[in-house]
Design goal:
heterodimer, A: 300 residues, mainly alpha, MetI-like fold, B: 326 residues, alpha/beta, Rossmann fold, 2 domains, 8-stranded mixed beta sheet, 12 strands
Amino acid sequence: MSNLSATLTPVPSGTTSPVRKRSGFVWLMRELAVKRSAQIGGSILILLVFCALFGNWIMPYDPFLVDALNRLKPPSLQHPFGTDELGRDILSRIIYGSRYFVTISITAAAIAITGGVTLGLLAGAGPYWLDSLLMRIVDIMLAYPYILLVLAVVAILGPSLTTAMVAVGIAAIPGYARLVRGEVLSVRQTEYVEAMRALGASQTRITFRTILPNVMSSIIIYASYATPLAVLSAAALSFLGLGAQPPIPEWGAMLVNARTFMRTAWWTVTMPGLAIFISILAMNLLGNALRDVLDPRSSR
Amino acid sequence: MNTAPLLNAEGIKAHFPVKAGPLSPLKGVVRAVDGVDLSLYRGETLGLVGESGCGKSTLGRALLGLIPITGGRVQLEGTSVLDQPPAKLKAMRREMQLIFQDPFAALDPRQTVGNAVRVALDINNIGKRSERQQIVEDIFAEVGLRPEHTHRFPHEFSGGQRQRVVIARALVLRPRFVVCDEPVSALDVSVQAQILNLLKRLQQDHQLTYLFVSHNLGVIEYMADRVAVMYYGKIVEIAERTELFRQPRHPYTRALMAAVPAPDPTARADELPMLGEPPDPMFLPDGCRFRNRCPMAIERCALEEPALIAVSSTHQSACWRNNTLI
């Protein structure tokens, strides 16, 4: 070994292909664009957001307009999804209701991610006693069924649409906290984090600049599963009369009244039910695609 | 070689309690580093060699303050390193850097390598913001990478190139003392020589002092000026490189050297072999910790632990039979 004579030659720069990042928004969109499930799920969700934003211009009728002469009319050219027991156009009500669906999704996800990531980072990167304390609280919250947890929050805050959004968000916090904590603990062990310490980086810097970006993809994947569950629970709350109150055309709330007429006017339950079903399915499809792209452990 | 050591470590201990859980009783203590004295002189390379699990890497990290030590002290040019206030400690960290074994694990996969190096400047507030990209490109050139490489991600590089990035990151702060923790053992043999020569050249250019950790005696012989042999937490022999390789005293060193496969198929190992398996680091024998594997052990080895004793002006060995072995 003592006659090593390999001289130092500059490393060839290899192919001059453009820089291909394996992270970042543009890269993610490009990867998703070729996935069938992402195409379908994404299109439906874009349509949903479009309805939520511009519903007022595309609704054929006023969703609150009572038309006593056209009660419980089956789907027709005038009313593609039929009318409800007060003669209100169901298609218009579903389009109007999309804004609640979108608002609930965003609010619940925002509350759950903010709370869960904060707790997870504190537990994973903080002192041991704090980790134990937070995780025991999370254990207690997870010991209750999800919907029971939601009901408990509603019982404290009182039934309303806002409460429902907050409740499903809060109830999703422990799942995120548990996930983030675990990921932080594993990333914290890596040599690139040790390298940051050797360079003199502060704990805060390491946590937010090194650990958090490496935990992000797990959070996104988890969010794509947890958010539909939260939205579904919000719809369930409305159905139970603990969320959106009539006459608000929130899809879950629409089912409550329609339930009575299920045998005689199937469209009154089927249409809002389908709206919920398709929207949740779209979220799950997108979630599957996200997991395929972001999770290196999943098979390609 | 200067007479005043750049880095002086006395009685370094890194003990780790082993428990099944936070509330369960202590099962034992792993004495990964158990009282090590080391001096490194400016511009020299001290090779640190030993079996895997013997505490080489732990010692290296303990010297840098990356692992809390349970005893002893480290001085850099006479200033104690580890008990400084945070701001002072950060300034001293700049003087002491680490090159990692596995360049695949040592780089953040979500950061361009240019940023990974630049962060070192940001953290320590070196240079103006506008100058930092230039500083990074300069150090890249110095380790044999091109300026356009700064925009790439770690996965776009080969192992050797990544290790160059890791070296650039360690050296961009212009440290004086660098712990090289098995810097080539994760690399292809064909690339190892390039990286070793790079490290040598950088050492000459910048008057660097290396603690070169390796289990590969060939690499140690090529790189080191002096060599320390470690066995489960203790330095058992330390000597000038040529002297150690020509005339190893400690039976452990001799066994290590005998274990290196010789390229000559007719050559016979005339050295004494090591007996048995590596010990459980939680339960090392009393007295000399090598005695249960030592072919030369005598009664005294079980009673007293031998200290490092000078066998020549540049050679120390911790064995009761130092003088009878030759």
